[in-house]
Amino acid sequence: MTKHMIEAGKPATKLKSEALAVLLERGLVHQSTDLEALDKRLNDGPITAYAGFDATAASLHVGHLMPLMTLRWLQRLGHRPIVVLGGGTSQVGDPSFRNDARPLLEERQIAANMATIRRSVERLVDMDGTEGALLVDNAEWLNEFRFLEFLRDYGSQFTVNRMMTFDSVKSRLDAQMPLTILEFCYMMLQAVDFLELAKRHDCVLQVGGSDQWGNIVNGVELGRRDGRKLHGLTVPLLTTANGSKMGKTASGAVWLHPEHLSPFGFWQFWRNTADADVGKFLRLFTELPMREVERLSELQGAELNEAKKILATQVTAIVHGPEEARVALEQGDALFSGDAELTEPTHTMALSVLAEGVGLLELVVASGFAASNGEARRLVEGGGVRLNNRVVDDARRRISSGDLGANDRLSLSVGKRCKALIGFE
Q1: Which of 159, 209, 247, 411 is the most exposed place for a label (fewest CB within 10 A)?
Q2: For residue 373, what pLDDT is reported?
Q3: Do 4-235 and 263-340 come out as alike in CATH topology?
């Protein structure tokens, strides 16, 4: 199957569908199984498209915003999105581009994770009305299969030879790391998801991250064997201007759910965007008209800080709602002018991590104030980091429970504009 690679922000010529043109212009398309055929299908009339998310954590993170923004745009332009929560596949765990197997979760934990993820999804896509987005659990069909029945119906549709050509599998084998049969079968399960959605809801498009390419292709090919023309589309890997993976920190991810990262902590993450990334993130994560995106992208110096505030407020409004975005903006303005101090935690960490101590550099990265330990080290050694309002210039410093103030909180600031209040629970 041909892999169509797309240069972000460079619309292909002779596009017929508004939806694909918008997605390309916003930089949300990386690969497509058949770009011309997908363009024609989108132009012929409304389609149903899906993206799936396993419930391996209690919240989605900013990396998940890319496929969710793609579904959001498709819905705005007249198409119907389906969000699949992996109550079935989460029992296995996607091995794509991992060096080890994911921990197996109990069904009770998966159900709890799905409940919190649902609350974030409901903000990002409109689920109201008969034509609203659908939220489904793939356990509905995967849990119904009996082992021998599954092998008979689908095992013959996949070859080990083909599956070993996908980068997600090759990377594990090249690293000489074990790949269990359980993990190897994951891509079969995701392919069955696509076929089931096609049968149940006439779904013809799967959207996913670039690491899902092999899994998506398997679904498209399984649909072809069933006489269906299905399509796959991946979004780019989310990276910053310096090439690092965006949204991943030393202690985890930049979460979308407010119980894991406060709306102000989320707002501040975007407010601290590197200058070189502002235009890119305005395209990807806001719904501002492209003319306004281009205007803001051209700002320089102090004016660019205003563009960062607009970016932060727009993304926070999409993820947490307009009122939370307004409050975050007001709090940010007050903090950066020196007129206020934080009263509620912007980040939370487990109290247990303090038993062996948390590195200061790790804390700076986890708070979103540096992209790497090296950058954090330079900030610390330059005297720009404060713990509980005191300068700390020892990059080897470790944080223990004795450093905590009232209510098990720790104040961290970098320079005059970056402030966090970290709660330990």
Answers
A1: 159
A2: 82
A3: no
